[in-house]
Design goal:
alpha/beta; 2 domains; six-stranded parallel sheet; 17 helices; 14 strands; about 40% helix; Glyco_trans_1; glycosyltransferase activity; Glycosyltransferase subfamily 4-like N-terminal domain-containing protein; Glycosyltransferase_grp1; Glyco_trans_4-like_N
């Protein structure tokens, strides 16, 4: 009987820290349910989930605690230090057939991709951000969309794009030169792009299109069951709209609030971030309510009862889980026409508006909020089919060449 392939998943953190971590953890659970032998490689970190493989993890590094630790962290960026030894050990002991990388820059290192390829593994890398194209990850410069580094990586240093720091930006520049496209294309069999937008940007920057595969993220069945456990009846929307996410400039929440104060509908803001205190002081009013950090169940109830959720981003969102989850709950989404957002919002699922356009955003909010009936069940049914585990696995299985 043929042995099931062994699959090693690699991400710099192993707890639900952000979208990249959540996607990898969900994939691990899916692969285990399908009967595959799965292992995880990450960095030692206090908040990590329990793992029988934690003894193999790369040692923890920090970019903020003293010169010695910063030097170790800088070495890690270029694949120096203990990471080669620990990754070779898990390769030799677990003997994977496939290694699937997620977010590995800085706290791990792309050196692990080379090691996996040298070992003879099939290598797959899901791109959760724009790090391979933009050394500072997010294609933003001084709050504006920027593609300067697509053709000249030195711009990250000249413009101090990494945390406004010349030293951090110099490291990012060196990292981009060292782990360049020529090397990465040689070591990676397939780059998985969660959005067509990401794939288009990769191809425009010279990546071989035959190595790019577009596979949208999925919602795991347990999460769908969780959504159903807080089911509401058709027509029970509560007359408010909401924003759920980080309160930071690139998310466009400042513009949303500028629009919201002139509209008669209640807006609930869930989340925290660097702008929380400023925005709360300026915009708290009768129709703008800041909820702060909410539990998962509280977020589900908030979104399911909302008339619509707004995603007003002013940066290249890739494949935001917030949009996918809202649609799977049956709540339409008003999204900025930027990045991968338009690929998720189809006719009947909400509305798009021109990024940064306050008038269009206000018009979209009024239009959706004024609807008497929302086809909650239809939105949820379509979304749950589009973003199902079955659809995702059928596409990823081809990439794995199984």
């Amino acid at each position: 009987m043929k042995r099931m392939p062994r699959i090693l998943l690699v991400n710099k953190f192993y707890y639900p820290r952000g979208g990249d971590c959540i996607c990898m953890i969900n994939l691990e659970a899916l692969l285990r349910r399908l009967g595959y032998e799965v292992a995880v490689y990450s960095m030692v970190y206090s908040q990590n989930l329990p793992s029988e493989m934690s003894g193999y993890f790369a040692s923890e590094i920090s970019f903020s605690d003293g010169l010695k630790n910063k030097t170790r962290a800088a070495c890690r960026i270029f694949g120096l230090g203990d990471i080669k030894k620990s990754f070779k050990k898990i390769l030799n002991d677990f003997r994977p057939d496939i290694v699937h990388f997620h977010n590995i820059h800085s706290y791990l290192s792309p050196v692990v991709v080379k090691l996996a390829k040298d070992y003879g593994c099939r290598t797959v890398w899901t791109l959760h951000d724009y790090k391979l194209l933009c050394p500072s990850y997010n294609c933003l410069c001084q709050g504006k969309i920027c593609e300067a580094c697509f053709t000249d990586r030195f711009q990250v240093f000249r413009r101090k794009c990494m945390k406004g720091s010349r030293i951090a930006s110099a490291l990012a520049y060196g990292e981009a030169l060292w782990w360049n496209r020529k090397k990465l294309q040689r070591w990676v069999d397939t780059f998985v792009c969660p959005s067509s937008f990401m794939a288009q940007k990769m191809r425009a920057c010279g990546y071989d299109y035959t190595k790019l595969s577009v596979i949208c993220n999925f919602i795991e069945q347990d999460k769908l069951d969780f959504f159903h456990s807080t089911e509401i009846n058709e027509g029970e929307k509560s007359g408010y709209y909401c924003y759920v996410g980080r309160l930071s400039e690139e998310k466009g929440v400042r513009m949303l609030l500028e629009v919201a104060v002139s509209l008669p509908f209640p807006l609930y803001i869930a989340g925290d971030g660097p702008l929380l205190n400023e925005l709360q002081a300026k915009y708290s009013s009768g129709n703008v309510i800041f909820l702060g950090h909410l539990s998962s169940r509280e977020i589900v109830r908030l979104v399911k009862h909302a008339q619509t959720m707004v995603v007003p981003s002013i940066w290249y969102e890739n494949n935001p889980l917030s949009v996918i989850e809202s649609l799977c709950m049956g709540t339409p989404v008003i999204g900025a026409e930027v990045g991968g957002i338009p690929e998720l919002i189809r006719e009947g699922d909400g509305m798009l508006f021109r990024m940064g356009d306050k008038e269009e955003l206000a018009s979209a909010i009024v239009s959706v909020m004024s609807k008497d009936n929302v086809d909650t069940q239809g939105i949820a049914r379509r979304a749950q089919k589009r973003f199902s585990e079955e659809r995702y696995w059928a596409e990823l299985r081809n990439v794995y060449d199984l």
